[in-house]
What we know:
By secondary structure, the chain is mainly α. It has helices at 8-15, 21-29, 34-40, 44-47, 65-76, 81-92, 98-110, 113-129, 135-155, 157-170, 181-201, 206-209, 217-232, 238-255, 259-271, 280-290, 295-298.
Amino acid sequence: MNSVPRSYYTDFYSVGFLHTKSMKDFEKVYEVSDEKKGWLAFSAPFMIKIFESSYTFKMKREILKPSLKRKLEEDWGITDGETALEVIKNLVNGNYQAPMIDAYYHGLISCQIVEVLEEEEKIVIMDREMDLANEDFLMEEYLAHESAAMEKYYEIEDEFKEILVRIKIEGKNRNFVKVNPVEESMSVMGGFRWISGLLLNAEYTSQELCELKSLAAWDYGRVGALARISVHLGYLEECEAWKYIRASAEHGRRDYNSWREYLAAYFLGQALTEKDYSMDTRLIIEYMLVNENSPFIRLPF
């Protein structure tokens, strides 16, 4: 696996909330088998955002229950066991947002978004290798790649708008008919470019990011999180939740070849739905790829 240099961000997570003595003690008390830790790892990028470990099933922070209950109702329509199972089953089967984001992703690939990423990959490499002696020369080349990336980006915009119209007509996603494809094109492309940039900085290649078969990882990765939260809130029994957590892990291993590939698909899926431009995403990507405490480092795929 390629790695990114250790930085303030990974140091923050290595000594932060996930690895306090209190959390370590909690993980020992509520430890699960190595097999189950492997299943839980698929939801680790989600759980880290709500300050919970991915090495235990039980959740530590009782104080978050009211806000989690509100978020599940507002974002997912989950208010009880029945609604929780309906959403979780759709996620496990890749029927929640996966059809929409796969249509978006393959549309971008057909528009040759890879040409944009190739220019941005060159910029990232130059950022790493630039030295003061050649600063003027490299800056000129740097700006040339940046200009080429923007030019190619705008070149494919009109083509991508037409693809989004076809997606709408074909009914590939029920929610998509509610938005204007012309306005949506920049939102989708912008989110994809933002996350792609973070992944390129984490030493992914443009080729890796454009050869994924599916972005269903975004659905699979939220199964374990919603299952654990639903048990935490009393909506589901733990034994029932484990059934779906295991299934999502099996589907993740079926569709991807490594944690690295899974993580790229997860975050690109997020990019095409949530339009999240926060730096939290950068922190989590770095943590998952290089921190010795990350489940993606400690556990086999």
